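Backbone shape codes:
***
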Amino acid sequence: MRGHHSTPDKLERTRVTIPMARLDLSEDCAGTCLYLASDNLSGYVTGQVIEVNGGQLMPQRARGGPIAVP
């Protein structure tokens, strides 16, 4: 997320939506990439989506809050 395309204000508005209360680092994805690249560790894993987002995309209920009904 850090880069030339986001203003400090936009980064802060995003940060407060992440349960882990911080923006991501490239190192945050490294473990998942190594896991998926290893036949020994993930050789039997198929058809999965692994979210590496600090909990940002979890449903509100899982975070302890209400789920908004449209």
About this structure: The two ends are 29 Å apart (CA to CA). The helical segments are 8-15, 26-37, 39-42. The chain is about 35% helix and 0% strand. Residues 26-37 form the longest helix (12 residues).
